[in-house]
Amino acid sequence: MHTERKPNILFMMSDDHASHAMSCYGSRINRTPQLDRIANEGMLFDNCFCTNSICSPSRAAILTGKYNHLNGVKSIEDELDGRQMTFPKLLQEGGYQTAMIGKWHLGHGGNADPTGFDYWTVVPGQGDYHNPHFYEMGELKKFKGYVTDVITDFSIDWMDKRDRDRPFLLMCHHKAPHRPWVPAKKYESLYEDTVIPEPETFYDDYATRSKAAVDARMRIDSHMNDEVDLKGSPPDGLSPIEAKKWRYQRYIKDYLRCVASIDESVGRLLDYLEEDGIAEDTIVIYTSDQGFFLGDHGWYDKRFMYEESLRMPFIVRYPREIRAGSRTDAMTLNIDFPATFLDYAGIPIPDEMQGSSLRPIWEDAGTPDNWRTSMYYRYWMHLDEHHNVYSHYGIRTERYKLIYYYGEALGTSGSIEENRSPEWELFDLELDPYELKNVYGYDSYADVAKSLKQELRKLQLAVLDEPVEEI
User: Fold this and answer.
1) Torsions phi, psi of 10, nearest 5?
2) Which helix (H) or strand (E) is 252 found in, with range?
3) CA angle in degrees (0–180, nearest 5) for 277-283-287
4) Pairing state between β 139-142 and 133-136
């Protein structure tokens, strides 16, 4: 009877935590021993991708299991209409006790507050690192402490007070390590005497790539705010290269210090499950809402369909079904998460959900027959005021990536902007894993480009999205 019990679900998600800042993913720049526990005792996904690399849209996709043109959250300005179907609602209706603690970032008030939760307490907007405010069941309150610790305390307290006769869903969603990267006092001097290695593409000059890459305003050497992001200005007398190196060290160390608190939090929650005797009965997930550029291509932030931004960390532990130390390269999307949770809860997966349950992969550590071999991505926020990233969509297969920068502003239905032409990028990920050489237009890749365009159109039709123009 015990083995037939529906599993608890502890779904931990951070904000902007790139997989290449986790030692289980081979990080060159930090160690994450508590996160590694999940990977070592469960499964690591090498190819988990987001469908839109920006906070609110990714969170909406995870809750609804639908692409953003269907769930209504295309940008960070959009609120989620809570009247639509979400997996927490379905779990709650199916007997689960549910809680949402931490970062929501899908609006407040009206229909935007969390729904489907017995208890929720969420930070307003991005939230504050120190002495944060929370909307607890709609009431604004302020709490002392560091936000990662506070969210962890709330999560443990909720689990401790739960009804032990029913399974639970706990969404523990951290603000960190989101910009402006303010570490906890205990980690302020971490890495102080260390030189963090620079990424391979740190000095990328975008020579073969689109105007979109050249025009993006997220370069470490010129677009960071010294006072807010770096908490100081470079010393006088540095050359441009030396100043770039200085800025990178300031940025990446504070980022990794925030990650250290996340790792500590994960350890505390894992320890609680062990001490409470429910580790065997609990699905433990750790992910991030998208990837992040950690100096890659000379950038910070995300948004682009390039690998460091597109790729999400995704590790899961469930001793009853997942073999310890498993690893898979099956192509996984954030819209797959809801279907997976419902599958394990024994709740029918609604037809409107566009993802697939990952349960066959968890059970067999292989790629099921007829599993996807390509994925569709779309970023809508054309020329946002802070980062100036062009709107684009594209396809990633196991070997290739094709990106179309169509240059149309969010919500418009007119023609392409007159001051620029649409652009294509094509990367052969097998020969060029760092995406430095755009081979679109090469005769040797003409057939590949044609085939990818056809597959891109098929994917758009399959997910009910509309292309900007026929290609």
Assistant:
1) -105, 105
2) helix 240-275
3) 125
4) antiparallel
Unique residue bearing structure tokens 């990714």 = 58
The DSSP code sequence of 59-104 is HHHHHHSS-HHHHS--STTPPP-TTS--HHHHHHHTT-EEEEEEE-
Here the tokens at position 321 are 């079904």
Cis, peptide link before residue 368, omega less than 30° from 0: no
The answer to whether the beta carbons of residues 189 and 265 sit under 8 Å apart is no
Q: 78-98 burial, b if ≥16 CB within 10 A, otherwise e?
A: bbbbbebbbbbbbbbeeebbb
Neighbour-count burial of 300, counting CB atoms closer than 10 A to its CB (0-12 exposed, 13-18 middle, 19+ buried): buried
Would you call 296 helix, strand, or coil by DSSP?
A: helix
Residue by residue, pLDDT tens for the chain (471 residues) are 234 689 999 999 999 999 999 999 999 999 999 999 999 999 999 999 999 999 999 999 999 999 999 999 999 999 999 999 999 999 999 999 999 999 999 999 999 999 999 999 999 999 999 999 999 999 999 999 999 999 999 999 999 999 999 999 999 999 999 999 999 999 999 999 999 999 999 999 999 999 999 999 999 999 999 999 999 999 999 999 999 999 999 999 999 999 999 999 999 999 999 999 999 999 999 999 999 999 999 999 999 999 999 999 999 999 999 999 999 999 999 999 999 999 999 999 999 999 999 999 999 878 889 999 999 999 999 988 899 999 999 999 999 999 999 988 764 444 444 445 799 999 999 999 999 999 999 999 999 999 999 999 999 999 999 888 766
Q: Dig out the tokens for 287 from the structure.
A: 């992910």
Which among 424, 421, 428 has a CA at the least distance from the CA of 398? 428
Task: Return the CA Rg of the chain.
Answer: 22
DSSP per residue over 214-246, as a string? HH-S-BTTTTS-HHHHSSS-PPTT--HHHHHHH
